[in-house]
Design brief:
By secondary structure, the chain is α+β, with helices and mostly antiparallel strands. The protein is built from six helices and six strands.
Amino acid sequence: MAHNPDFSHRRSIRIKEYNYADNGAYFVTLCTKNKQCIFADIKQGKIKICALGAIAHNCWLKISEHFPHVILDVFVIMPNHVHGILWLNNSQKPVNEARSFGNIVAGSLSSVIRSYKAAVTKEINYICGQKGTSLVWQRNYYEHIIRDEKALQEIRKYIVENPLNWDKDPEYSLSREILLDLPF
C-alpha cells in the first residue's frame, strides 16, 4: 500500500487526557459517509425512517444488550446522521487501561460506538449484497461530554427538535432531490 501523508498524520478529535470509559453522559453524533441521506426522509418535521434507518434504529436500541454498563437516553435517526445520549456506568469493573491512539479501551465510549457502527454496517451490507468497504459511515464520530443538568436538558431538547430544523440544514436540499445515490 502506498504511503498516504494525509492518513498517517491523522489526529484524534478526542480530549487527550480524558478517559472516555469514565462514568457520565455523552452526546454523540455519527454521520453517514459523504453525508448521504440514507436513513430517513423528513417532511414538515416528521421523520419517515426507511429500511436502512430502521437498521440504525434497531441496532441503537440493542446497545444496552451488548454493553450492560450503557444506559440509553434520547436519540434520533436523521436522514444523514444519528444523534444520541449514552450514559456510561462502569462502576461494575475498574477500567484502568492506558489510552493510546488506535487502542480501543474495553467499556469505553469508543468501543460502544465502534461496535454500533459495525453492527449497522454488517446488516446493511448483508441486505444490500455489499462486501468489503463500508458505504455507510463517515470515519470517526463527534462527542460531547455532558457536564451538568442544564447542558443535559439543552442537548435533549436539541435532539428532540432536530427534525423540526431539518429544512434549515445544508443537506436538506440534497435530500429533496434524491434519498440516496448508492447501489442499494
